[in-house]
Structures are given as structure tokens and as C-alpha cells.
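Table 4 source record.
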Amino acid sequence: MFVPRHYAQDDAAALDYLLAHDSFATLVSTVAGEPFASHLPVMAHRDGGTVVFEGHMARANPQWQELAAHPALLIVHGPHAYVSPSWYPQPEHSVPTWNYAVAHAVGPVELIHERDALAALVAALAARYEDRVGSHWRFPESAPSTTHELAGIVGFRLRAQRLQVKYKLNQHHEPDKVRSAAAALARQPDPDARAVSALMLEQLARRQAPETQP
């Protein structure tokens, strides 16, 4: 991914934000020599300085059969929004753009076939998302008759050897342009637009904060 220096995010909180916003990721690898992608919910944790992503896919999905042979790419999607030149103080000197936040993780993939490990993975994923919708449903306690379905999935664990987090949020624009566009985005009905607005103002505040002296 092309990441100009002023768009690069090096702090762990930037990735954590993206995963909290949308942990339905895109896993890209090759199948029979051609690009192949699956769209899957994932979890992430840190093992020392390495971010590890986990998820699972249907065993009928051909992607898993070659997944461990080569490094794979996992894309974590963040909020994104169109930015109109009309929102800037001098629109006649500006062009349209698209602001967004995204992360790319590249690394080797370990497959998970063992039943107990799969059960633990499904249980952890279910608990995370059930909590978000206010449900107490748990696997396998809430549906013990469904454990046979574990035979129909394959788990995966990707260790990010290369991690890029990109926030393209007008960081190279003058503060008045950033504030004006962020204010317009905050008025949009799309929640992604409002999320981009908040990120733009957060990045601007960081840019304007005085550097601390050692």
C-alpha cells in the first residue's frame, strides 16, 4: 500500500480504533495462481511486538488450502468519506478527494484444524460480537447441538510481519481547510462521514500540539 509519510500511523491505538470500528476484514491470498479474497470477522491481539489476527472460514472455501504456503494480506477497513471542494474556504483552488482510514497486515498464516482450538476461537468471536448487540448467547453453552458444525470450518492465525496503518485525512492541508471540511462532514447523515470528521480533527490537534521536550 502506498503510504506517504504524513498519512502513516505508528501508534497501536490507530489499529485498535480501526478494529473497534469495523473488524470485518478482507483476507487476500492466491488460489491456483490467481488473487482470491474472503471477507471475514477477525480478532487481534499482540504477542510481544507482533500483532496476531485470528478468524475462520468455511472448509468449502478453497482459499484455506493454499493459505499457509505464502504470506497473505489482511485488510482492516476503517471509515471513509467523499470530501467536496465546496467545503473549503477557497473551493476554486481545490479538488475533490476521498478521506479514509485503513490498515494492511502481511504475514505468514497458520491454519487451525484441531477441534478444541476451533471451539475456543468460535467462542471468543461469538462472545465479542454478542456483547456488542447486548446478547448473552454463548458458544457452545447456548447451542450445544451445533458443535458438530466445527467440522465445516478452518481457523487461521496471521502474524503481521509487516503492518501499515494509513489515515488519509487532509494532514497536509492548512488547518482552516481541515476544520471547514470536518465541519461539513460532521453534518452528513452517513456515520462514516461523521467518524472521518472526528478523525480529521483529532489528527489536526496532534499536528498542532507543541512537541514535548526531553
